[in-house]
Structure formats: structure tokens, C-alpha cells
């Protein structure tokens, strides 16, 4: 876990955009992307967040968020749970009545996060190369208002994810999202498999890639 100053976090970027993923896709949202990740997924599209960033105090981050005049905040990365001061940021945002989303890669204990926030957790599939890094106890920690996301690169990944979903009865417990790794698996193929198998999951497209296909940052 990264240790920042008493009240600071290493921040890669802060921007306002449209939430591109999850069941909240389409809503305006301020994104706080924190620096650093403990994984190296094969399809990672935020490699620039591994190292780049500046130190900002929790108060400075909140002040910048307030400047966007938007009550939805998504804390993402990298892997945001690596920085212990993320909890201070979340708690301060809660006192200001923000709706808070945290995107996490599934390799760290999600129960360290406080209640009353939306946890969007990845389950890393085999083709990500990071499957063995998962904290599998997280599947038992999921709540009804959380979201669990599988990013699939192949039919093999799909078959694997289908087994996990059925084995753990995930659709009965939480929101289940299936998305395709950009450029590796066609959404049309994924949609066909979901329908054929009568799988009770939600297909998600990355809206930000459809709206801004030429932008790789700040969306
Ligand atoms: S967990 Fe996310 S940020 Fe980290 S390597 Fe994987 S895709 Fe990239």
C-alpha cells in the first residue's frame, strides 16, 4: 500500500465526463483517477496511471471536484485502494452528500471501503493474465447495490466467466456486467453468447469509447 503524506493522495487526473460503464452508464460524473496499480492486465488502457501523478491533499481534491458542480464522483485508477488516504477522501465526500462510485480491480479486500457507496469490482478473467491475483473472498462480500464486472477477451474467457457467475449465483446477489476488451472481442459475439445461454447478466459497452473514439485520456 502506498503511503502518502498525512492527508495527500497521488492523483493521475481529475475530469468530468459521462460515466461510460456500469448500470449508471450515461450519467455525468467527476472522475478522480489515482496513480499506481498492483496489476498489469493485458488489455489495460490506463497504463499512464501506473506512475504519472501529482500529490494533492484531500482538501485540494475535493475543492477541484466541487468546481465541476456535479454530485456524482467516481474514484478509479490504477487501483484506488492502494492509497490509504482514499478512505479520508471518501469520508469527506460523504459528508458533502456526493454519490460515490469506487472502481477496484478485485485483488484487494473491498470490505475496507465504507458503506453507502457503490463498489464496482472487476473479476479478472484468464486472458487478462491477472486471474491468479484475485481475492476470491470478495465474491462473498458483494452487496446488492455493488456491481461486479467481467472484461472478456475471448470465448474462453466467456465460458470461464459463465461458470463463475453460475457457481456463485452472482445475478441473485448483485449486478453483473459483461464487457468485451476493446479490440479483442466483438460486442456482437458476446451479445449472441449471452442470449444463447440465457445468462442473466448485463452487456455493457464502454460509452466513452463510442462518444470519443479518438481520446484516450480525460474521458
Ligand atoms: S487493474 Fe485496471 S489499471 Fe490495473 S492493470 Fe488492470 S486494467 Fe490496468
Automatic annotation (TrEMBL):
Q: Which InterPro entries match?
A: 7-CO-7-deazaguanine_synth-like, Aldolase_TIM, rSAM, rSAM_sf
List, alphabetically, the Pfam families matched: Radical_SAM (PF04055)
SUPFAM superfamilies recorded: Radical SAM enzymes
Q: Which UniProt keywords apply?
A: 4Fe-4S, Iron, Iron-sulfur, Lyase, Magnesium, Metal-binding, S-adenosyl-L-methionine
Tell me the ranges covered by the Radical SAM core domain, including all copies.
24-214
Any coiled-coil ranges, and where?
A: none
Name by which UniProt lists this protein: Radical SAM core domain-containing protein
Q: Which organism is it from?
A: marine sediment metagenome
Specify the taxonomic lineage. unclassified sequences, metagenomes, ecological metagenomes
